[in-house]
Predict the 3D structure of the following.
Amino acid sequence: MATTTLIRGADLVAAPWKNGGGVTREVAAFPLNAGLDTFTWRVSIADVAQAGPFSAFAGIDRTLVLLSGAGMLLDETDGTNDTESSGAHAVKTHALTQPLAIAQFAGEARIDARLVDGATRDFNLMVRRGAAVGETEVWRGATQRTLFADVVLLFCASGSVQVALGGDAQPRALETGDTLRIDTPNALPCVVEGTGALLAISIRYK
Protein backbone atom coordinates (compact mmCIF):
# COMPACT_ATOMS: atom_id res chain seq x y z
CA MET A 1 0.00 0.00 0.00
CA ALA A 2 1.18 3.47 -0.84
CA THR A 3 1.73 5.87 2.03
CA THR A 4 1.62 9.65 1.65
CA THR A 5 3.14 12.57 3.53
CA LEU A 6 2.21 16.21 2.93
CA ILE A 7 5.17 18.54 3.47
CA ARG A 8 4.30 22.22 3.69
CA GLY A 9 6.78 24.70 2.27
CA ALA A 10 6.16 27.04 5.21
CA ASP A 11 7.50 24.38 7.60
CA LEU A 12 10.89 23.95 5.91
CA VAL A 13 13.90 25.00 8.01
CA ALA A 14 16.79 27.03 6.56
CA ALA A 15 20.38 25.81 7.01
CA PRO A 16 23.74 26.89 5.51
CA TRP A 17 25.15 25.15 2.46
CA LYS A 18 27.85 22.55 2.95
CA ASN A 19 30.42 25.16 1.82
CA GLY A 20 28.65 28.07 3.58
CA GLY A 21 27.94 29.91 0.33
CA GLY A 22 24.16 29.92 0.49
CA VAL A 23 21.04 28.65 2.27
CA THR A 24 19.24 25.34 1.80
CA ARG A 25 15.91 24.01 3.05
CA GLU A 26 15.61 20.24 3.13
CA VAL A 27 12.28 18.93 1.85
CA ALA A 28 12.92 15.21 2.36
CA ALA A 29 15.78 12.72 2.49
CA PHE A 30 16.43 9.01 2.86
CA PRO A 31 17.33 7.51 5.26
CA LEU A 32 15.48 9.72 7.74
CA ASN A 33 17.82 12.20 9.44
CA ALA A 34 20.71 11.23 7.14
CA GLY A 35 23.62 13.66 7.06
CA LEU A 36 25.06 15.28 3.93
CA ASP A 37 27.58 12.45 3.62
CA THR A 38 25.21 9.54 4.27
CA PHE A 39 21.95 10.16 2.37
CA THR A 40 20.75 7.88 -0.44
CA TRP A 41 18.72 10.75 -1.85
CA ARG A 42 17.91 14.29 -0.78
CA VAL A 43 15.50 16.93 -2.06
CA SER A 44 15.91 20.57 -1.06
CA ILE A 45 15.28 24.20 -1.98
CA ALA A 46 18.29 26.50 -2.25
CA ASP A 47 18.56 30.29 -2.24
CA VAL A 48 21.55 31.57 -4.20
CA ALA A 49 22.37 35.19 -3.40
CA GLN A 50 25.81 35.52 -4.96
CA ALA A 51 28.09 33.99 -7.56
CA GLY A 52 30.57 31.34 -6.49
CA PRO A 53 31.44 27.64 -6.38
CA PHE A 54 28.98 24.89 -5.56
CA SER A 55 29.64 22.40 -2.76
CA ALA A 56 31.29 19.15 -3.83
CA PHE A 57 29.31 15.90 -3.41
CA ALA A 58 31.42 12.99 -4.64
CA GLY A 59 29.41 10.04 -5.95
CA ILE A 60 26.17 12.04 -6.18
CA ASP A 61 24.10 12.74 -9.31
CA ARG A 62 22.55 16.20 -9.11
CA THR A 63 19.52 17.80 -10.78
CA LEU A 64 18.73 21.51 -10.42
CA VAL A 65 15.51 23.24 -11.50
CA LEU A 66 15.12 27.03 -11.56
CA LEU A 67 12.15 28.11 -9.42
CA SER A 68 12.45 31.90 -9.34
CA GLY A 69 14.77 34.75 -10.26
CA ALA A 70 16.48 35.58 -13.53
CA GLY A 71 18.56 32.43 -13.25
CA MET A 72 22.12 31.16 -13.23
CA LEU A 73 24.84 30.03 -15.61
CA LEU A 74 26.68 27.04 -14.17
CA ASP A 75 30.20 26.71 -15.54
CA GLU A 76 31.47 23.14 -15.28
CA THR A 77 35.27 23.07 -15.47
CA ASP A 78 37.87 20.33 -15.82
CA GLY A 79 39.67 21.45 -12.65
CA THR A 80 39.21 20.19 -9.11
CA ASN A 81 36.88 21.62 -6.48
CA ASP A 82 39.85 23.51 -5.04
CA THR A 83 38.93 27.14 -5.64
CA GLU A 84 42.62 28.08 -5.57
CA SER A 85 43.53 25.77 -8.46
CA SER A 86 44.72 27.40 -11.65
CA GLY A 87 44.51 26.45 -15.28
CA ALA A 88 40.95 25.09 -15.14
CA HIS A 89 38.69 26.02 -18.03
CA ALA A 90 34.98 25.53 -18.68
CA VAL A 91 34.03 22.37 -20.52
CA LYS A 92 30.28 22.99 -20.36
CA THR A 93 27.88 25.71 -19.24
CA HIS A 94 24.48 24.70 -17.87
CA ALA A 95 21.98 27.51 -18.50
CA LEU A 96 19.16 27.91 -15.99
CA THR A 97 17.59 31.03 -17.44
CA GLN A 98 13.96 30.05 -17.99
CA PRO A 99 11.37 29.12 -15.33
CA LEU A 100 11.62 25.38 -14.52
CA ALA A 101 14.71 24.92 -16.69
CA ILE A 102 16.63 21.76 -15.67
CA ALA A 103 20.38 21.12 -15.33
CA GLN A 104 22.02 17.78 -14.51
CA PHE A 105 25.63 17.16 -13.49
CA ALA A 106 27.87 15.01 -11.31
CA GLY A 107 28.26 16.15 -7.72
CA GLU A 108 32.04 15.83 -7.86
CA ALA A 109 32.28 18.17 -10.86
CA ARG A 110 33.63 21.65 -10.22
CA ILE A 111 30.70 24.01 -10.74
CA ASP A 112 30.95 27.79 -10.57
CA ALA A 113 27.68 29.72 -10.61
CA ARG A 114 27.16 33.09 -12.30
CA LEU A 115 23.93 34.92 -11.51
CA VAL A 116 22.12 36.44 -14.48
CA ASP A 117 20.48 39.29 -12.56
CA GLY A 118 20.25 38.96 -8.80
CA ALA A 119 19.33 36.18 -6.41
CA THR A 120 17.65 32.96 -7.50
CA ARG A 121 15.87 30.01 -5.90
CA ASP A 122 16.28 26.48 -7.19
CA PHE A 123 15.04 22.97 -6.55
CA ASN A 124 17.79 20.44 -5.89
CA LEU A 125 17.62 16.64 -6.23
CA MET A 126 20.68 14.65 -5.15
CA VAL A 127 20.89 10.88 -5.57
CA ARG A 128 23.76 8.61 -4.52
CA ARG A 129 25.13 6.91 -7.62
CA GLY A 130 24.91 3.13 -7.43
CA ALA A 131 22.28 3.19 -4.66
CA ALA A 132 19.35 4.82 -6.49
CA VAL A 133 18.35 6.69 -9.63
CA GLY A 134 16.14 9.78 -9.86
CA GLU A 135 14.08 11.27 -12.66
CA THR A 136 12.60 14.77 -12.78
CA GLU A 137 9.62 15.80 -14.93
CA VAL A 138 7.69 19.07 -15.18
CA TRP A 139 3.90 18.73 -15.16
CA ARG A 140 1.90 21.82 -16.10
CA GLY A 141 -1.83 22.18 -15.49
CA ALA A 142 -4.33 19.34 -15.37
CA THR A 143 -2.98 15.86 -16.12
CA GLN A 144 -3.52 12.18 -15.43
CA ARG A 145 -0.57 9.88 -14.76
CA THR A 146 0.26 6.49 -13.33
CA LEU A 147 3.04 6.50 -10.74
CA PHE A 148 5.74 3.81 -10.92
CA ALA A 149 8.68 4.14 -8.49
CA ASP A 150 9.84 3.35 -4.98
CA VAL A 151 9.24 6.99 -4.00
CA VAL A 152 7.50 9.84 -5.86
CA LEU A 153 7.62 13.46 -4.72
CA LEU A 154 5.23 15.98 -6.25
CA PHE A 155 6.55 19.49 -5.58
CA CYS A 156 4.32 22.45 -6.40
CA ALA A 157 6.70 24.81 -8.17
CA SER A 158 4.15 27.53 -8.94
CA GLY A 159 0.46 28.28 -8.49
CA SER A 160 -1.78 25.72 -6.81
CA VAL A 161 -3.02 22.24 -7.72
CA GLN A 162 -5.29 19.49 -6.43
CA VAL A 163 -3.84 15.97 -6.43
CA ALA A 164 -6.04 12.86 -6.20
CA LEU A 165 -4.39 9.46 -5.79
CA GLY A 166 -6.04 6.14 -6.58
CA GLY A 167 -9.59 7.45 -6.48
CA ASP A 168 -9.20 9.55 -3.33
CA ALA A 169 -12.48 10.99 -2.14
CA GLN A 170 -10.64 14.11 -0.96
CA PRO A 171 -7.84 15.46 -3.18
CA ARG A 172 -4.77 17.03 -1.57
CA ALA A 173 -4.39 20.76 -2.11
CA LEU A 174 -0.85 21.92 -2.83
CA GLU A 175 0.25 25.55 -2.86
CA THR A 176 3.59 26.87 -4.14
CA GLY A 177 6.41 25.27 -2.15
CA ASP A 178 4.37 22.29 -0.88
CA THR A 179 5.37 18.67 -1.56
CA LEU A 180 3.35 15.46 -1.57
CA ARG A 181 5.59 12.44 -0.89
CA ILE A 182 4.28 9.03 -1.96
CA ASP A 183 6.14 5.90 -0.85
CA THR A 184 5.69 2.62 -2.82
CA PRO A 185 3.08 4.01 -5.26
CA ASN A 186 3.15 0.75 -7.39
CA ALA A 187 1.07 1.69 -10.45
CA LEU A 188 -0.91 4.27 -8.49
CA PRO A 189 -3.28 6.45 -10.58
CA CYS A 190 -2.70 10.18 -10.09
CA VAL A 191 -5.05 12.96 -11.24
CA VAL A 192 -3.91 16.59 -11.06
CA GLU A 193 -6.30 19.53 -11.39
CA GLY A 194 -5.47 23.23 -11.44
CA THR A 195 -3.29 25.66 -13.34
CA GLY A 196 -0.08 25.33 -11.35
CA ALA A 197 3.14 23.51 -12.22
CA LEU A 198 4.48 20.42 -10.48
CA LEU A 199 7.93 18.87 -10.39
CA ALA A 200 7.45 15.10 -10.36
CA ILE A 201 10.44 13.30 -8.85
CA SER A 202 10.57 9.51 -9.28
CA ILE A 203 13.20 7.61 -7.27
CA ARG A 204 14.04 3.95 -7.72
CA TYR A 205 16.41 2.02 -5.47
CA LYS A 206 19.04 -0.29 -6.97
Notes: The chain has no helices and 19 strands. The radius of gyration is 17 Å.
